[in-house]
Amino acid sequence: MEDDDSEMEVTEKVNVEFEARNPEEADFHGIRQLLLQLFLKSNIDISAITDWILTQRYVGSVIKQYLDDGDDDEDESSMEEDVNQVYGVITCLNITKYKDKPCTDQIKKHLLQKLANSKSSANQLQAILENPSNNIGWLINERFVNIPAQIAVPSFQSIRQEMNTANQKGEDYHCSHYIMVAKKFRMKTLPKPGKKRISKKPLESEIYSNGEEEFFAEAAEFRATFTVAEERDNGVVQQWDSELEDQYEPLREIIVIKANELETIMIKVEKLL
Questions:
Q1: Each residue of 199-252: pLDDT tens digit?
Q2: Beta partners for 65?
């Protein structure tokens, strides 16, 4: 007789609260891992970008688990691990002011190289990046895929406040444009007629890993997509079920918006998420 326990699927719902904190040195590995899942196989110095995030003043947050001081009955080592786990990072790096940083140049070259098959798109992006009247901030908005999109609203509200404060303190976050690299997936092929699907998740032609980034794309002055299917997207795909992995191709989308669009985007996000 087979053990019934082996056939039993147990589902446990766990309520977890998250909070934004200032990045600190101990967050280096967690931030770096999040950036690595954005730029998979590249010549970008991800460690240098991580150091930049950690050392810039006033702007940027990491998402960590909120732990109540009253949780005394939890194992100390487990609590310490949870506290140090970085579940997300949101910040803005001024790639115009710091255009001479080697990692800034690497990012620009990487994105333009990814658009090499579309000369028109590459030329448009290059014109935006090299226009001397533009002051461009790179919005980094990375988190685990199972972190709810609702966290985007307070995160972006916070970073806007931080940039305003930084401007008052003499830093330069008076951006004319923001550039973002979004993770998304495109359906490869429709399921064969009559084939029974295991998952009940609805199939969409394109899915953004961070749902709010679709609103950025809709407001974009420039947008272009490239595939990363050959770059083994372990950082994201492993968190999807195998059926979705088979049906969707991993992509990256370059999105450029005018800075004055950010408030309108956040209003839309707040209403719909």
A1: 545 556 888 999 999 999 999 999 999 999 888 644 444 444 455 567 888 899
A2: 18
Query: b/e map of 67-95 (b: 16 or more CB within 10 Å)?
Result: eeeeeeeeeeeeeeebeeebbbbbbbbbb
Instruction: Please state, as a whole number, how many other Cβ atoms lie within 10 Å of the Cβ of residue 138.
Output: 20
Gyration radius of the chain over CA positions:
20
Is the whole model's pTM more than 0.85, yes or no? no
pLDDT tens sequence across 107-134: 999 999 999 999 999 999 999 999 999 9
Secondary structure letter of residue 132 according to DSSP: T
**Residue 181: which of 112, 97, 264, 260 has the closest Cα?**
112
Sorted by sequence, the CB contacts under 8 Å of residue 80 that are 6+ apart come out as none
Could you give the CA distance from residue 271 to residue 267 in angstroms, rounded to a whole number? 6
Tell me the residue type at 228: V
CA 262 to CA 148: how far, in whole Å? 20
